[in-house]
Every structure is written in structure tokens, then in C-alpha cells.
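Journal club side-thread
Mid-discussion, someone asked how the predicted structure for our own chain would compare to the paper's figures. Pasting it here so we can look after the session.
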Amino acid sequence: MENDINEVFRAIKEENRRIKERNLEEARPILKFFKKYTEYHYALKLKNKRLDYWPSTNKWRYDDKTYHGNSKKMYQFLLDNTLGQKDI
């Protein structure tokens, strides 16, 4: 019984790793706009505020709010918030 549970947890852990890697790969085209802090943490200045982005978990923080969404949603967020901006 314990081996079955361990096997399930290993499978879940491996699937989570694959999902994070896929998310990171999908975000590669927009990462050129960001400063890289670690493989999993990126940031940029947007309207004089810091935007932190963790593409592997599809999460970003901006203006004291946390957002979730895939790389397409992040790209749209950048477009919506940078019209007329020159700091990107």
C-alpha cells in the first residue's frame, strides 16, 4: 500500500515538473522584455512600478495584485498596460 502511494506522489511530482517546463517554454518569446533574476523569476518596470513574473507557474505580480494566466494572457496584459509607454 505504501509503495502505491509513493508511486502516485512520484507521478504527480513528475507531471507538475512537465507542466512547469511547458509553461516556461511557451513564455520564452515574451521573456526578452524582462530582466532575468533566476530561471524561474523575471521582472520589468512598467509605468514606474515593478512587475514580477514567474512563467513556470503562470503567475505575475503588479501594483500589489497577483495575476494568473498563460503567456498569451501575460502578453495581452503587457499590451493593455503599455500603450504609449516607453519603459519596456
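Post-session note: The mean pLDDT is 91.
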